[in-house]
Write a structure and sequence with these properties.
alpha+beta; Butyryl-Coa Dehydrogenase, subunit A, domain 1; Butyryl-CoA Dehydrogenase, subunit A, domain 2; Butyryl-CoA Dehydrogenase, subunit A, domain 3; four-stranded mixed sheet; four-stranded antiparallel sheet; 12 helices; 8 strands
Length: 396
């Protein structure tokens, strides 16, 4: 297994970093690059961040792995991972759901009409999507979703509720999973739809989590969707969702935020201290910091295993589960250690002028708990590892 990037990939990394150096000179660079932002840093949720994504598009960074016939560059998927790695390092928005799960699924399964309507706009960063998967009774068990899609003339009538829909409060289109056959096995009766977020019958209620991540509760009341906006075949939505999640595992879980957090914490502990000496000079702090440094390197190796498996044409289901389980837990342990080391000052909120590191670590303590839930909880990742890697039975 080769953990290093080749010369072309290294050159691409250098090219992206040079571009980001240019962005640092923009008047609104502070809004675009927010490495201290603990929540929603991957989203294009402000005008400046949307403009940044349009510049990414103009320079050809969107659709790197798309086939050339659809406006892409036909590059291996690792280039999109490398791009997201550099974007996440500086807290800039990632290339997004449109290029990833939406665009890739439309390329493989969408009708010619959907491809013509959406793919060019995705490549120009003109539209934002929200993913309507989770429901009050269908979180980790997504196949248990109940939102109804009943047949109507030339389309479908949708009714139900979605929970924890990130981006719904600023997205343009809803990528929505609904049940179209209640008599089929639960994995077989799901279909995917596209509908505009401003369509009558869609009501959005924002929810702010303890980590200041804005998510949403969405109510769907008698919303009509034309047959033209069904993605792929009816009742095959579960297959499309799983394919999209496999793609997201390859590009979404970046390592660089962990590395940057460790650097920031180490620098802080080397300067802070109320007794005239740096906190990092204390023996127990030095030992713990050394342990965390080794753990961050281990997280990097787990991420490289995901990349390697994907580059070999395998779906990195187990590798991605291991990486997510370990890295999200490590984010929490870094925050725990920071607060323990900083003492009572570490509990100060970022709104307090006296807070160390502008309150980053208190915010991190609140925000990182959510990372172990989103995109598949830690318990789900453990089940994947237990069943698919260790061969353990589903029930004992």
């Amino acid at each position: 297994m080769d953990f290093d990037f080749d010369a072309d990939q290294q050159a691409f990394i250098g090219e992206v970093r040079a571009f980001l150096d240019e962005v640092r000179q923009w008047p609104d660079a502070a809004d675009i690059m927010c490495p201290e932002r603990e929540s929603d840093s991957i989203l294009a949720d402000t005008p400046a961040r949307k403009a940044f994504n349009r510049e990414l598009a103009r320079r050809g960074y969107l659709g790197l792995s798309w086939p050339r016939e659809y406006g892409g560059q036909g590059r291996p998927g690792i280039y999109e991972y490398l791009l997201n790695e550099e974007l996440s390092r500086v807290g800039a928005p990632l290339i997004g759901k449109g290029v990833g799960c939406v665009g890739q699924t439309l390329i493989r399964h969408g009708s010619d009409g959907l491809k013509r309507e959406f793919l060019p706009r995705i490549l120009k960063a003109e539209i934002e999507f929200a993913l309507g998967y989770t429901e009050p009774h269908a979180g980790s068990d997504l196949a248990a979703l109940r939102l109804r899609a009943d047949r109507a003339e030339n389309g479908w009538l949708l009714n139900g509720q979605k929970m924890f829909t990130t981006s719904a409060h600023f997205a343009d289109w809803y990528w929505l999973a609904a049940r179209t056959d209640f008599d089929a096995p639960k994995h077989k009766g799901i279909s995917l739809f596209l509908l505009p977020m401003d369509q009558p019958g869609i009501t959005i209620h924002p929810i702010e989590t303890m980590g200041e991540h804005v998510t949403n509760q969405v109510f769907i009341d008698n919303v009509f969707v034309s047959d033209d906006y069904v993605v792929g075949e009816v009742n095959k939505g579960w297959t499309y969702i799983c394919e999209a999640l496999d793609y997201e595992r390859f590009t979404f879980y970046t390592f660089s935020p962990l590395e940057e957090k460790l650097k920031a914490l180490r620098a802080l502990l080397c300067t802070e201290g109320g007794d005239g000496a740096a906190i990092a000079a204390r023996p127990h702090v030095r030992r713990h910091l050394a342990r965390l440094t080794a753990d961050v390197e281990l997280s990097k190796m787990l991420q490289r295993r995901v990349i390697y498996a994907s580059s070999q044409g395998r779906v990195p289901t187990v590798e991605a589960a291991m990486c997510k389980l370990y890295s999200t837990g490590l984010h929490q342990r870094l925050a725990d250690f920071a607060l323990d080391s900083l003492g009572t000052d570490g509990l100060l909120h970022k709104a307090d002028a006296q807070a160390p590191a502008a309150g980053k670590w208190e915010w991190s303590y609140r925000a990182t708990a959510l990372d172990t839930i989103g995109a598949g909880s830690s318990e789900i990742q453990k089940n994947i590892i237990a069943r698919r890697e260790l061969g353990l039975p589903l029930r004992f």
